[in-house]
Design a protein that fits this description.
Layout lengths: L6 H12 L2 H12 L4 H18 L4 H9 L7 H17 L4 H11 L5 H24 L5 H23 L3 H17 L5 H10 L19 H19 L6 H17 L4 H9 L1 H4 L2 H15 L6 H8 L2
Helix pairs in contact: 2-3, 3-5, 4-5, 5-7, 6-7, 6-8, 7-8, 7-9, 8-9, 9-11, 9-12, 11-12, 12-15, 13-16, 15-16
Length: 310
């Protein structure tokens, strides 16, 4: 039997459904300014649902109004806004020119939970940024400023990886650098074909970028990737790095070595040095990761070299 709905509630539901989405978004944004954290979050999540999933054409109209909540005192509200910006860029990459400078500013937030969330967001959007720039025929001042902001963000991530005392922040910075290395290095033909077949290869790489591109300079990107992998390798020899971060680096370097064989030798040599630098219980944990990571390629040079050294 169908549930009985009072006539008054039914009329109210019909009025809501008939109300233009833009008007509903305006009402929710106005309400959000009046409420405390929980109700404010509820309003903002509804706004995201309406704009991102119901009518993305409203992004241009209301992006600034949603971003304004990034100044809210509540970390949960600021995290919600970061999530909105991420989804907005995935829906409309043109939003990157407005979002990336905001993310650059947000990277200075002192709240570690905000930092972790923005690092996750940046990791998601960096490949999208490169693809967006590749598809453009001309570059406005706004687009060029956006790319400069993204370059600054990459430097900020490197600084956080080295200077942050928070394990979670460091972990997300390390994961971003893994993506950066894969995106800014060339594929090995054999490994690329195998990885694509298995669905594990990052879709884009340095091979995708034409030498004539006026913003994306191949030499600069290659050099930056080399510096990033150098930083990760240095951290494996650090006496102050946590076991959690070390394991994250080992996983990231293994992924890089699997997809970019040019780095096999360097990575294996770094792993071999772990025996003299860390307690045996940590080394055992690290070694146990390798069979799971590369069990699909039992004859892989990385696997044989690392397990052989055990």
């Amino acid at each position: 039997m169908a549930e009985f709905v009072p006539l008054g509630e039914l009329i109210e539901m019909e009025e809501v459904l008939a109300e233009p989405i833009a008007d509903r978004v305006i009402a929710l944004l106005n309400e959000a300014q009046l409420y405390d954290k929980d109700e404010k979050l509820n309003c903002l999540y509804k706004v995201q649902e309406l704009i991102i999933h119901k009518d993305p054409s409203l992004l241009d109209n209301f992006m600034d109004e949603v971003i304004a909540f990034q100044q809210d005192n509540s970390p949960e509200v600021r995290k919600c806004v970061i999530g909105f910006m991420e989804e907005a860029c995935k829906k409309d990459p043109g939003s990157l020119s407005k979002v990336v400078p905001i993310l650059q500013y947000t990277m200075t937030d002192e709240n570690v939970n905000i930092l972790k969330r923005v690092l996750i967001c940046v990791n998601q959007l960096y490949r999208l940024t490169l693809e967006f720039l590749l598809n453009l025929k001309s570059f406005s001042d706004e687009i060029m400023d956006m790319w400069e902001s993204m370059k600054d963000i990459k430097n900020q991530v490197l600084d956080l990886m080295e200077s942050s005392d928070n394990v979670g922040v460091k972990t997300q910075a390390i994961k971003f650098l893994e993506s950066l290395i894969l995106l800014q290095t060339k594929k090995d033909v054999e490994s690329a074909e195998s990885s694509v077949a298995k669905g594990t290869e990052v879709e884009m790489s340095l091979d995708s970028i034409p030498r004539s591109h006026c913003l994306l300079k191949i030499s600069e990107l290659r050099e930056e990737a080399g510096m990033a992998i150098g930083k990760l390798l240095q951290l494996t020899a650090s006496s102050t790095i946590s076991s959690v971060n070390l394991i994250t680096i080992i996983v990231c370097l293994t992924n890089v070595a699997k997809q970019r064989p040019i780095h096999f030798t360097t990575v294996v040599q770094a792993f071999e040095l772990l025996h003299g630098e860390y307690p045996i219980d940590l080394i055992i944990v690290v070694l146990l990761l390798f069979p799971k990571l590369i069990s699909h390629r039992p004859t892989h040079p990385l696997k044989s070299a690392v397990l052989g050294s055990n």
